[in-house]
Amino acid sequence: MKKSEILLAIALGVVVVIAAACGSKTGPDGSVPTGKVIKAVPVENLTATLSNDSGVLKRGNQELMLAFTDSSGKPVDVGAVSLNFHMPQMGSMAAMTDSVTFTTTRTSGVYRGKVNIESGGEWQAQLAYEGQAGKGQTTFSVTAQ
To answer: Around Cβ 31, how many Cβ atoms within 10 Å?
Structure first.
């Protein structure tokens, strides 16, 4: 092989590795992987599933996924979504509320969120949505480690 062919092969290999590493975070069917389930709860006629890479809500900054599905498991776009983690006042510790900031994904009904959970312990998650699928809200308990 000529030196130029070897350099071209190496350069092509580097491009392929970089493209794979920087590619979109979608599955082979174009869906967004949601990770391991933290909690799944009914909301009106849908199921809301909170998840992340580890399946555990943790103290500190983290990324979460929230997916809404119908009774057949098909994703449902619910429009605007809000999720707050609330811990009531305990003794001298003030009440805390940590809000999730969501963005939409390429998969309808799947939302990517970022939150900073201030403290480990039992939190009340306050979930609401409003949009094409109507309105819904629920509250559920979840423990942050």
So the answer is: 15
Residue 137 lies in a domain: yes
Q: Considering the domain boundaries, does residue 14 fall inside one?
A: no
- Say if 116 falls within a structural domain: yes
- Beta strands 134-144 and 121-131 are antiparallel
Does the model's pTM come out above 0.70?
Answer: yes
Could you tell me if 54 and 144 are in contact, meaning their C-beta atoms sit under 8 angstroms apart? no
Q: What is the pLDDT of residues 95-132, one digit of tens each?
A: 999 999 999 999 999 999 999 999 999 999 999 999 98
Helix (H) / strand (E) element for 121: namely strand 121-131
Low-confidence ranges of the chain (pLDDT < 50): 7-9, 11-30
How far is residue 65's CA from residue 104's CA, in Å, rounded to a whole number?
A: 10
Assess if residue 8 is contained within a domain.
no
* Contact status, residue 39 vs residue 142, Cβ threshold 8 Å: yes
Provide the domain limits for residue 45. Answer: 27-144
